[in-house]
Amino acid sequence: MLVIKVEVWPFGREHRAKEIARMHIANITPDEDEVVHGDYSVAIGEMVPMCSCSEIGFKPRSTGRVDAHPRKLPVWSLVAKALRSVGFSA
Asked: Half-sphere exposure of residue 9, counting CA atoms within 13 Å on the CB side?
């Protein structure tokens, strides 16, 4: 599974980083021997408080799917298709 995290670094200070969003891209290819193409489920969402404590967790906002993605392509190609599958376009 790929996990893409979006963080805010206030004034460029990494030690104050706060994760604000996340994308999960999970391989759901039914055939383990398939090495040329892959099928993927996609979930995007924001980080939200999980309880009255200071814990935060991932809350999916939208889901999608990418089918028959050529595995030889760069990872960013898969990320772009995943974004389109949940309704984002450039």
From this structure: 5
